[in-house]
Amino acid sequence: MRVIAIIANLVQMAIVLSIFMLQGISLAGLTILALFSLLIIAAFNLLVLLFTGSSITGTIVKEKKAIIKRRDFRVGYALGRQPKLGIGNRHYDVLDIAEGGTRISVGRHERLKKHFQCRIQLLCGDILSMKAVVIRREGDEAALAFKSAVEYRTLQKEKQVVAGMQQ
Prior knowledge:
A hairpin with a 2-residue loop joins strand 3 (90-98) and strand 4 (101-105). The chain contains 4 helices and 7 strands. It is elongated. The protein is α+β, with helices and mostly antiparallel strands.
């Protein structure tokens, strides 16, 4: 993909330079300015591609998506005001929840299956029945990924309840 982007930038630069060579000074002032701008953007993007491996716009879009996803789609809970996640007859405190997964509080030496079915009783009253997989263990916490996403409106409802509890 990176090679294709580099080739595309080189082709764009070649086209702009050939238009300059063929038409020269007979082009209108604004046209020359537009072509020169395209040439500078292509050259800068080419340099970024060569040194970082991703294009200018790709990097910006990835960063914005990550910021939006973290801020808007994750619901965090205060200690003592946490929903419960049930696996069989065991229950764990939910530290936070997002569309794709959750973090739970688990005893440091307690074992969890890699794949399991769980139920989460949210503070808004909704009960989620999810298939989950453990993706990471850090101390007393386990990060779980859901096989299917939690609905956005469910997270929004939960976020409103949590915000009301904090007031």
